[in-house]
Amino acid sequence: MADEMSLKQIPLTIIVAATPKNGIGNNGGLPWPMLKKEMAYFARVTKRVPMPVGTGSAQSDAWKQTNLEGTRRNVVIMGRKTWESIPPKFRPLKDRTNIIISTQDRSKLGGVPDDVVVASNISSGLEALEQHVKDGKALPVGRAFVIGGSSVYEAAFKLPQTKSVLLTRIKKDFDCDTQFPEDVGAASSSWQQSSREGLERFVGEAVPAEGLTEGEGQQSISYEFHLYERP
Predict the structure, then answer these.
(1) Nearest-angstrom CA–CA distance, 226 and 45
(2) Mind listing the pLDDT tens digit for each residue in 17-35?
């Protein structure tokens, strides 16, 4: 929660779905067919505002979807290509403050709503949002998520406040032309995998240990949810 700190220092969480070889994109879109349950997980997790510190530490408390409506809102940070890959009717992403990272001027992005922040990098985007909050143009921030693409993920990894990675591991290979920039699951990685209980506390909901499967037969796709944290 960003109560007593500048938004430039708010902890950042990367959220990503990737193949076993860390592929995340192909031809400007997802490499795999639409996974409705995975997309629903992404939406719930990025919308869910954490309970304020001191209001309950039990896991059951964390699962209460109060969302603190009208008082706080989570932030999703994305690059221009990720923004453009979202169908127009679904953008900006609902019930979240959207930040677009782009070197292009806002006027060249075409039809970006006034409540969407456009900035050249993550830090300046958070700084601009902080001013919007002070001016009453945006709700105070709960959590901040970095949602892609590859270059924005790479920039986030270089920031010390990037503390967590929520990884959906797609358990099937697909043709990809875009890679996730860091293999957080590698044995040599400095990132540490959390327990399933730690993941559930973080996301605020139960997570199936065996993962999920969508589709049938040879078209089925299985995936698992993981949390990695910077030590």
Answers:
(1) 13
(2) 999 999 999 999 999 999 9
